[in-house]
Design a protein that fits this description.
Number of helices of chain A: 3
Oligomer: heterodimer
Order of helices and strands of chain A: HHH
Distance between the termini of chain B: 46 Å
Shape of chain A: elongated
Distance between the termini of chain A: 24 Å
Radius of gyration of chain B: 23 Å
Order of helices and strands of chain B: HEHHHEEEEHEEH
Strand order of the largest sheet of chain B: 1-2-3-4
Largest sheet of chain A: none
Amino acid sequence: MITAHFLANLLAVVVYFLFWSEVFIILYHLTRFGIGTQPKRYAAVFFLGSIILFLVSVVAYFTLDFSTLSHLIKLS
Amino acid sequence: MTLRSFLELFTNSDNSFEGQEESEKVILILRKHIFIIYSQVFLYGVLIFVPWAVGQGFGGFLSAQALMHLFVFISSLWMLFFWAAIFYSLTMYSLNVVIITDHRIIESSQLGLFKRKISELHLSRVQDISVRTDGIIETALKFGDLEVQTASEQREFIFRLIPNPEHVKDVIMNLVVDNHL
């Protein structure tokens, strides 16, 4: 049975997949086509920041209470 | 070994590039003036803090409605998006480059993530160079456009918004003279 929680999980997976696809593409371009150390520095900072922000987002996702949210949606 | 490789990111390199000939020496690597990218990144940087401002203004309401966790999650997605947007801009900035060597001038333009244009001009084909600086900001920060007239099929190369265009013009003219000798 497809529940709201399942759909939310699916949506989160899709969003995070798209995010990491873009991260990979940007890192690839910076390291493959970048000249000098400036692009590589950007790649290092971008990668570290992406990991930190991704972990924060995942933790924030797991704090969501879907039963309360479903109840609020039904009330509205 | 890995730490050493990582730390080497923060030291200068010899600016080698793909397609560089064996005897070819890189004289200058040019990108657009840093002001161009800073103004864009500053805008994104301001927008990244919008959730914080909304939280300050509507925190009470969100807590009362049991929406604070949802708000935090949406804020985290907002920050992911703008983080990627900042580095997309920095990538485009970094990859739009003009390489001046002792043999040729190469312009590599990254027009999108999967769209790239590379133009090459041999120094022996350079006929004329002019510098154009427009406006208060360009004059104060010393950046502008460099126009190179050539004897090639592509008659004109224009390198936009590069720092110290007068100095770059002098460097290219000296290289052209050396090439002819």
